Amino acid sequence: MTTLFVGNLPFSSSEAELRGLFEQYGVVSSVVLVRDRDSGRPRGFAFVDMDDQSAAEAMLHMNHIELQGRVLRINRARQRGPDPGRAR
Q: What tens digit of pLDDT does each residue of 4-16 get?
């Protein structure tokens, strides 16, 4: 399983819309559209889980495509490091 980071999303994007885009390249396990904790509004990025081969195809074909006037940036998501503010 590979998690993709999808950045520079239009704020009007939906999880269903992203799932539809990525399903063109394989089975999508999950889509998480990251939202602001306080306002609940989308923050302009998401994470998409796909099998490894499908994720590679999606990155190859979808990186830098335009969605609602914004150029998407798609990369393999990095593991989150320790939060220095919480470790005390």
A: 999 999 999 999 9
pLDDT at 74 over 70: yes
CA 23 – CA 9 distance, rounded (Å): 17
Helix (H) or strand (E) holding 86: none
Polymer length of the chain: 88
Contact by Cβ (8 Å): 48, 6: yes
Tokens, residue 85: 């503010």
Cβ contacts of 26 within 8 Å, gap of 6 or more: 50, 51, 53, 54, 55, 57, 58
Domains and CATH numbers, the chain: 2-36+43-76 (3.30.70.330)
What value does the mean pLDDT of the chain take? 90
